[in-house]
Automatic annotation (TrEMBL):
It comes from the Bacteria. It is found in: Membrane. GO terms for molecular function: iron ion binding; oxidoreductase activity. Residues 93-229 form the Fatty acid hydroxylase domain. This is Sterol desaturase. InterPro entries: Fatty_acid_hydroxylase, Sterol_Desaturase_Related. It comes from Reinekea blandensis MED297. The keyword Membrane applies. Keywords: Membrane, Transmembrane, Transmembrane helix. GO terms for cellular component: membrane. Its main location: membrane.
């Protein structure tokens, strides 16, 4: 079973990614939450160009990605769950939850350590908020994140299936919660007890620092509530607050070459 999943891991993830991306694009067209002011052609071309670059880099440097670390741990009986002889079903569930918790804390660290924030701020410098914002991460941040993820998978001894499920859930929820989509208020309130909704995560993309430093979760909302980083709304409300960063507001800042150089630019 693990061998079959490993062989088809890339195809499984690609099909899931494209399916969710297309669904969100259609949803954004039919029921947008905010009217966008910045050219979609400009933003999408550069944001999608960035994800293509990141994908090529990851496949060149980490051909088997995190799944390779899970295969290694299984073959060598390495990692916590192998050491404890944890039942497979329990190891799978715990692996998915613990990896998601790791991403939550990684996200917080990238906000609070200055040189890591320089990498991560490119994600926040998008002046609009839609599904392509969920693809917009600096290549160095992507590579650092992969090293952290590989280490965590190996140390846990996470099952192959758990890693694939986690990757699909993480990518899928990142596309969902960055969507410029409208949900009924009653549904958003109920979903927030479990999932990070677009309205909840949009708060995190406010230009105001105290609002940016909240709602760090990507998949489930439990971590923000548990660790006191949850914020229900911006002061200005969903439709009026400024998205992005105050220091990167020009059209030039949205070009791919400038996004790649952004961590090396100094701003007070």
């Amino acid at each position: 079973m693990a061998d079959t999943l490993t062989m088809h891991e890339a195809s499984i993830r690609l099909i899931a990614f494209i399916s969710i991306l297309l669904l969100m694009v259609v949803w954004e067209r039919l029921a947008p939450r905010r009217i966008q002011q910045v050219s979609r052609a400009l933003r999408w071309a550069n944001n999608v160009g960035l994800v293509v670059l990141n994908t090529v880099l990851l496949r060149l440097l980490f051909p088997l990605a995190a799944v390779g670390a899970a295969v290694f741990a299984e073959q060598h009986q390495f990692g916590l769950f192998h050491y404890l002889n944890t039942p497979p079903a329990i190891a799978l569930v715990l692996s998915v939850l613990l990896l998601d918790l790791l991403i939550y804390f990684q996200h917080r660290v990238f906000h609070h350590v200055p040189w890591l924030w320089r990498l991560h701020r490119m994600h926040h410098a998008d002046q609009e908020f839609d599904v392509t914002t969920g693809l917009r991460f600096h290549p160095i941040e992507i590579l650092l994140s992969m090293v952290i993820k590989l280490s965590a998978v190996a140390l846990l001894g996470a099952p192959v299936a758990a890693v694939i499920i986690f990757e699909i859930v993480l990518n899928g929820t990142a596309l969902f919660n960055h969507g410029n989509v409208r949900l009924p208020d009653w549904l958003d309130r109920r979903l927030r007890w479990v999932l990070v909704t677009p309205d909840m995560h949009r708060v995190h993309h406010s230009a105001e620092p105290e609002e940016t430093n909240s709602n760090f979760g990507f998949s489930v909302s439990w971590w923000d509530r548990l660790f006191k980083t949850y914020r229900a709304e911006t002061r200005a409300g969903q439709l009026k607050f400024l998205i992005g960063l105050h220091e990167f507001r020009t059209t030039k800042d949205q070009r791919l070459d400038q996004m790649l150089l952004q961590p090396f630019r100094h701003h007070r």
